Amino acid sequence: MTRVRVTAPRSASRPARESREAAEESEVGQVFVRSLIRSQLRLALVVAIDFMLILCAFPLLLAALPGLAETRIAGIPFDWILLGAGIYPVIGLSAWLYIRTAARNEARYRDLAGDE
Amino acid sequence: MNPAVGVIALVLVSLATAAIGFYGLRISRTTGDFYVASRTVKPWWNASAIGGEYLSAASFLGVAGLILLSGTDALWFPVGYTAGYLMLLLFVAAPLRRSGAYTIPDFTEARLDSRAVRRVTSVVVVVVGWLYIVPQLHGAALTIRITTGLPAWVGSVAVVVVVCLTVVAGGMRSITFVQAFQFWLKLTALAVPVLFIVFTLAGDGSAAVAPAVVNPTGLAPAGPYQNISLLVALLFGTLGLPHVLVRFYTNPDGHSARRTTLIVLGLLSVFYLFPTAYGLVGRMFAPELARSGQADAVVLLLPGQLIGGTAGDLLSALVVAGAFAAFLSTTSGLVVSLAGVISQDVLGGSVRGFRLAAVVSAVVPLGFAVMTDSLALAGSVGLVFAFTASTVCPVLLLGIWWRGLTDAGAIAGMVTGGVLCGGAMVWGTVLGAAGTPFWLAQPAAWTVPAAFAVTVLVSRATKHRIPRTMSRVMTRLHTPERPLVTER
C-alpha cells in the first residue's frame, strides 16, 4: 500500500473545496470513496431487507395463528391494529438506525480522507 | 349535506393558498428561488411541505375508500406509501441532494454525460406527472359533485386555476409555505372529525357493543401476488416521483436531507392512522356506502351521516377543506416539478419560461380528467407508482449505486419499463376492471424486475460507453459536504 504524506503545512486561506477535490481524485482518495460507497450500500441493503422480512412476517403470523386476528382490543380486531398501526414504528425505527449508521460511516470517511 | 358548506370550504382553502402564495412572492427573486427555494428551507418546514405535497387525493379520500371496500388487504396501501419513503431515505435522499441537480433529467444527464438520456428521462417524468395529476382532478370533481351538487368539472377547473395562479406568482418559495400549511390542514381535517365520531359513538355506548367488521361488497380477498406486486410498486415508485425528488434539493446538505426524511416518516405514520380509522368506522357503521359505489367519498360523507346537524355540517366543511388542500398541494407540487423539467428542456430555463411551462403542465391533464371517469382513486394512483417504479426507479438506483451504468442501458431500461407497464395499464383499461387478469391489473412485480434486468444487461454490453466523468460524479454523490456538517 502506498503512503501519501502531506509535507507542506496547509495554509489557512486555501479554499477547502480545492483540497477536497484534490484528495478525492488521487488514487488513495478513490480507494476511500469506493469503500465509503460500499459500506453505505451494504447498510442500505441490510436495513431494506430486514424491513421487508418483518413486513412479510406480519401476515404470516396472522395466517399461522388464525385465532389472533379475531382477538379484539377495545373493540378493534387485532389484525387491523397490527397492519394498520403496528408497522409504522418498525419503519421509523429502521430509518433512525439507518441515519445514525450512515452518519457514522461518513464521519469515518472524513477522518480517513479529509484530514490527513 | 348542505351545499353551502362545500362551497365555503372550497373558497376558504383557495383563498388561504393564494394568500400564502402571494406572500411568498415578495421573497422570491432569482431563478434559484423559483426552482428550489434557494436550498435554504429548514428540515421541519421542508418535512411538513413534503408531507403536504405527498398526501394526495389517493391518501386523503382513496385509502379510506379502498379500506371500506376491501378491508385489511387495503391496509397495504398506507403502509406502502409510508415505506416508500424509507426506501427513498435508504437509497436516494442524501446522494440525490449531493448531486446538485434541480430535476431528475438534470441528474441523469450529469451522471451519464448524455443529452439523449436527458431527453428520454424528461419525457418519462412528464408522463408520470400528468398521470398523477389526473386522479387529483378526479378527486376534486368527485368532491364537488358529492358536496355541492355542482357539475363535476367545476372541481377540476377550480384546482387547476388556483394552482396556476399560485405557481406562476411565487414558484417554489411560496409553494414550500403553502405545502407546509396544507399538511397540517389535512391532518386536522381528518383527525378532528374521526376523533369526534369515535367519542360520540363511545358516548352513545354503541362502540362498547361495536358491530362486527363487515365485508360490504363480498369481494374475495387479494392473493399474495397482488399484495406483493402492490408493495413493489409503492416501495419503489415513491423514490422516482418527480415532485417528491425535487423537494430534496431544498435541503442545505445531504445529512439534513436524511433528517428531513426521518421527520417525514413520522408525519406520514401519524397521518395514515386516520384514513385507516375512517375505513374501519365506515366498515362497522356505514357499509352501505360501499354498495352504492360511493366508497371514495366515505371520508366526506361519514361526519354528516354519523353525527348530523350543525356539528355534522361543520365537520363536513373541515373535511372538504382538507380534501381540497390535498388536491391543491399535490397538483401544485407536480406542476412545479413538471414546469421545471419542461422549461429547462424546451424554453431555456428562464423565469418566464417556467411560468408558461407551469400553465401547460396543469392544463393538459385537465383535458384528460374532464374526458375520463374516475376509478378507485387509490387504485389508479397505485398504477402510477407501478409506472414510476418501472421507469425512473431503475435508472436512479443504478445511477447512484452502480459504476457500470451507461446511457444506452438507461434508455433501454426506461423504454422497456415504460412500454411494459404502460402497455399493461392500457390493456387493463381496454379489458375493464372485471375482465383484467390479476397479473395485468398489478403489473409491478414483473415490469420492475424486467426494467432492471434490461438496464443492467444493455449497460454490460456497452461497457465502452461508461462516461469518463463517472468517478468524479460518484465521489460527489457519496462524500459528505464541506464545511463539516453538524451531527445531530
* DSSP strand count of chain B: 0
Instruction: Briefly note the structural class of the backbone of chain B.
Output: mainly alpha
Question: N- to C-terminal separation of chain B?
Answer: 50 Å
Instruction: Give the low-pLDDT segments of chain B.
Output: 484-488
- Name the helicity range of chain B: over 70%
CATH 4th-level superfamily of chain B: Amino acid/polyamine transporter I
Count of domain modules of chain A = 1
Task: Give the strand order of the largest sheet of chain A, numbering strands 1, 2, ... along the chain.
Answer: 1-2
Number of strands of chain A: 2
CATH topology of chain B: Amino acid/polyamine transporter I
User: Could you give a short account of the major beta sheet of chain B?
Assistant: none
Which outline of chain B best applies? globular
Q: Number of helix segments of chain B?
A: 21
β-strand amount of chain A: under 5%
Count of helical stretches of chain A = 5
Structural class of chain A: mainly alpha
Task: Give the low-confidence spans of chain A.
Answer: 6-16
Oligomer: heterodimer
Using the CA coordinates, give the radius of gyration of chain A: 24 Å
